[in-house]
């Protein structure tokens, strides 16, 4: 992606509305920065937690936010009502595939098991050469330190190859996350031959 070119950025994040303000603040900053830089937010369309905060901030700054949400969540009334565009999928699997396909890069904000599952799945897809785009972990307040340490252990004990460390990049601010999303080269699909040790 050329510098200055606008992108669709998929953002994985928590739906919990009970998280510490530190995480809400960085979600809002990411939303504002997406809009200011002309990028489109793609997320899970939740109205609460970091999902809602990043969308609200993006939309509040005049940006575009596309939400991908499964039908059963719409039936529960969990969707953000102000998204620029809402895509309703039949199930969670289709939601995740659509979010990955629509984005030119993905950024993981802090989150619970759903966010962790999305992040680890996209790392797995990239390891297999099925997803080639930038993956950025926004490690606010060291939230992802334990996961990153676990991934490092996986490399150290030969569950992953050393070159798999390049699957993800780690950022410590919204601005840095977006810089990495724009500047990180796409993954070489020939890496799938290294998927098995």
Overview of the molecule:
With 197 residues, the protein is an alpha/beta fold. Helices cover 41% and strands 17% of the residues. It contains 7 helices and 7 strands. It has helices at residues 21-36, 49-60, 71-75, 92-102, 113-127, 145-156, 174-183, and strands at residues 8-12, 40-43, 64-70, 85-89, 105-108, 135-138, 168-171. Strands 4-3-2-1-5-6-7 form a 7-stranded parallel beta sheet, sandwiched between helices. Helix 3 (71-75) links the parallel strand 3 (64-70) and strand 4. Helix 1 runs parallel beside helix 2.
Helix fraction bin: 40-55%
Strand content: 15-25%
- Which class of secondary structure composition applies to the elements? alpha/beta
Give the C-alpha Rg.
Answer: 16 Å
Mean pLDDT: 94
SSE topology:
Blueprint: E1 8-12, H1 21-36, E2 40-43, H2 49-60, E3 64-70, H3 71-75, E4 85-89, H4 92-102, E5 105-108, H5 113-127, E6 135-138, H6 145-156, E7 168-171, H7 174-183
Parallel strand pairs: 1-2, 1-5, 2-3, 3-4, 5-6, 6-7
Entry keywords:
alpha/beta; single chain; 197 residues; 7-stranded parallel sheet; 17% strand
Brief write-up:
The chain has helices at residues 21-36, 49-60, 71-75, 92-102, 113-127, 145-156, 174-183, and strands spanning 8-12, 40-43, 64-70, 85-89, 105-108, 135-138, 168-171.
């Amino acid at each position: 992606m050329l510098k200055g070119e606008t992108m669709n950025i998929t953002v994985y994040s928590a739906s919990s509305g009970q998280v510490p303000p530190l995480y809400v603040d960085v979600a809002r900053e990411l939303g504002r920065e997406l809009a200011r830089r002309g990028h489109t937010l793609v997320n899970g369309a939740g109205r609460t937690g970091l999902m809602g905060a990043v969308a609200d901030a993006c939309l509040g700054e005049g940006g575009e936010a596309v939400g991908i949400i499964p039908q059963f969540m719409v039936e529960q009334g969990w969707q953000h009502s102000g998204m620029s565009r809402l895509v309703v999928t039949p199930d969670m699997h289709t939601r995740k595939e659509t979010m990955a396909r629509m984005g030119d890069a993905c950024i993981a904000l802090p989150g619970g098991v759903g966010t962790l599952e999305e992040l680890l799945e996209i790392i797995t897809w990239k390891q297999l050469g099925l997803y080639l785009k930038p993956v950025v972990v926004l490690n606010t307040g060291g939230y992802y330190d334990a996961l990153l340490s676990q991934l490092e252990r996986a490399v150290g004990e030969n569950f992953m190859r050393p070159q798999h460390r390049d699957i993800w990049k780690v950022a410590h601010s919204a601005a840095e996350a977006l810089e990495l999303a724009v500047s990180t080269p796409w993954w070489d699909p020939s890496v799938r031959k290294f998927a098995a040790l």
